[in-house]
Amino acid sequence: MTIGGMLLAAGGGSRMGMPKALVVGVDGEPWLGRGVRILAEAGCRPVLVVLGARADEAESLLPDGVPVVVGVAKDWQQGMSASLRRGLEVAETFDNVDAIVITLVDLPDLDADAVRRIASVPPGSARAALRQARYTDAPGHPVLIGRDHWEALRHSLTGDTGARQYLAAHGAEMVDCSDLGTGRDVDSRD
After folding, report:
1. CA distance 186 to 153
2. Where are the beta strands (DSSP E) in 55-137?
């Protein structure tokens, strides 16, 4: 069983004032590099990063020593659906990947333990799996999408929404991760 990782980082970050893929944390680590590192530390192989706004600049912030596949969502202005759609298109080229853990670049307290918890599925069940982290009473990231769902999910995506409706409609297993973080994303410098 092989679980890949996908980091969505294509948006323009209008509320942030810059693409979130270009943000460097207070600790000096680029958010992009942190997201890649967390997926890799959790055992996700391969790690796929979806870029869009200012992709060339963002690509320079990818960490050395971690193999990364980059997909560029040229239509990133259309919202999260464009990023996720591009990521799923690239993921479909990974013949040996049974499922993919998807997360966002702007989750400051996400750690590898949450990714491992979401990716922990019984052998032989990954291709059909749908799992989503839950923090207190709210769904969040990461999510795990089994390969059997990739094509249908890709075709269902529209506008500035991700997989949330698909996950709800298809009975995704909610996995409590409240003990591992808040699940909050950062939308502005404030």
Report:
1. 26
2. 68-72, 99-104, 130-135
pLDDT, tens digit, 9 for 90 and up, residues 29-73: 899 999 999 999 999 999 999 999 899 999 998 988 888 999 999
- What's the rounded Cα separation, in Å, for the pair 68 and 177? 26
| Side chain identity at residue 89, one-letter code | E
If one looks up domain 3-180 in CATH, what number appears? 3.90.550.10
Q: Can you give the pLDDT at residue 158?
A: 85
* Tokens standing for residue 104: 């966002």
Measure the N-to-C terminal CA separation of the chain; round to a whole number of Å: 41
User: How far is Cα 70 from Cα 126, in angstroms, rounded to an integer?
Assistant: 23
Sign, CA dihedral 20-22-26-29, equals positive
Could you tell me the pLDDT band of residue 111, with boundaries at 50, 70 and 90?
A: very high
What mean pLDDT do residues 120-128 have? 94
Residue 129 is predicted with a pLDDT of 97
The answer on pLDDT for 126 being more than 90 is: yes
Residue spans per domain, the chain: 3-180
